Amino acid sequence: MPQLAKRIGRAKPSAIMQVADKAKKLKAEGRDIISFSIGVPNFLPGSHVYEAAREALAKDSGQYGSNRGADALLDAFLKHMEGIGLTGYTRANCSTGIGAKHILYNLAEALLDEGDAIAFAIPYWTSYMDIAEIVNAKIDLLPCPPEQDYKLTPAQLDAALAKKPRVFLFNNPSNPTGMVYTKDEISALADVIAKHPDTWIITDDIYNRMVFDGVGYHNFVQARPELRDRVIFVDSLSKTYGMPGWRVGFMAGPEVVANAVTTMNSNHITNLPEIVVAASVAALSGPQDVPEEKCREFQAKRDQVMAVMESIPNLVCPRPQGAFYVFPDVSAYYGKSHDGKVIGNDIDLCNALLDSKGVACVPGSAFGEPRSLRISYTCPTPQLAPGLERIREFFNEMQ
Ligand SMILES: Cc1ncc(COP(=O)(O)O)c(C=O)c1O
């Protein structure tokens, strides 16, 4: 049989999906499972989004569309960007894709030749590693442990950019930690970026509308407008609007980068489907009450999760201020046992928690931080308190 390409040997199935699949299997066997594993928002968009999709279906042209994205969609995205303080961009600065993941993949293909360096923080969203490996980039990981609230410091960034990586990939608010950089923190990092002109900056900010406690969302380009020549902003409808399966992502940045992503599109997806485009325009331009209400709900759920985390002895859990994740450092429990099983690491712990209590969380090693585990708290509200109680019981039972 002929061989597969080498890059396929570097591509791995998602670690998060492996946990989710095990939880699904146990559920199918009749077990009572509460899932804190997949990072899905678990709500549906407003009715105006479905109405727009139905209307588009009624007048479907059936034709190919724009490789960059329909004008109406780009305009709605530009308006959304203005709403979060990113002004002065035009359609020529933008492109669209099948979700932010596809945009990030296109950017990796467009910006990185084999062996070029990409730097990003640990903990990282799993696909950063997977995509960087597929394109055979040299990966420079910047450890951001819980002691520094999982956040990158200006000194770390300065040292990383001094090595002139082709790309620095940033994520704010963060998956898996839920941490949000303050205005001053973004400003300090932007000052460092300004000193190092040889690196593209990708800022994956898809949770920009899910920020709590009045911290606000801040961006390198607002802090230092001259950085717009190198900063590529990535966004998505998936989390904000409860539309992960609709697969709509965006980028805005220098024209040359938007053109490169558009050229990539022309060679694989061609365009987003007309009906998806209409629904997306409605989501971005229509009433914003669903995302606003969900943001308030997630903040309250964050408080509920944190109250339990703080009640468990020896967990170290920086308080997240965005997205819908909590990422406790559980390593103080490694070496102890539960139900006679020794818990050596995050994978043992997540397996024991799932087997004994029916609660699915994702081991931190999926995000490069084996001391922690990720709790995604978007489950139906009635499941949250019992799920958290089971976690508390589990840790209390460890010996
Ligand atoms: C940080 C981050 N970036 C990108 C994505 C991908 O989003 P999309 O559904 O738009 O592909 C996710 C999804 O979990 C994410 O958490």
TrEMBL record:
<keyword id="KW-0663">Pyridoxal phosphate</keyword>
<dbReference type="InterPro" id="IPR015424">
    <property type="entry name" value="PyrdxlP-dep_Trfase"/>
</dbReference>
<dbReference type="InterPro" id="IPR004838">
    <property type="entry name" value="NHTrfase_class1_PyrdxlP-BS"/>
</dbReference>
<protein>
    <recommendedName>
        <fullName>Aminotransferase</fullName>
        <ecNumber>2.6.1.-</ecNumber>
    </recommendedName>
</protein>
<keyword id="KW-0808">Transferase</keyword>
<keyword id="KW-0032">Aminotransferase</keyword>
<dbReference type="GO" id="GO:0008483">
    <property type="term" value="F:transaminase activity"/>
</dbReference>
<feature type="domain" description="Aminotransferase class I/classII large">
    <location>
        <begin position="32"/>
        <end position="391"/>
    </location>
</feature>
<comment type="similarity">
    <text>Belongs to the class-I pyridoxal-phosphate-dependent aminotransferase family.</text>
</comment>
<dbReference type="InterPro" id="IPR050596">
    <property type="entry name" value="AspAT/PAT-like"/>
</dbReference>
<dbReference type="InterPro" id="IPR004839">
    <property type="entry name" value="Aminotransferase_I/II_large"/>
</dbReference>
<dbReference type="GO" id="GO:0006520">
    <property type="term" value="P:amino acid metabolic process"/>
</dbReference>
<dbReference type="InterPro" id="IPR015422">
    <property type="entry name" value="PyrdxlP-dep_Trfase_small"/>
</dbReference>
<dbReference type="Pfam" id="PF00155">
    <property type="entry name" value="Aminotran_1_2"/>
</dbReference>
<dbReference type="GO" id="GO:0030170">
    <property type="term" value="F:pyridoxal phosphate binding"/>
</dbReference>
<dbReference type="InterPro" id="IPR015421">
    <property type="entry name" value="PyrdxlP-dep_Trfase_major"/>
</dbReference>
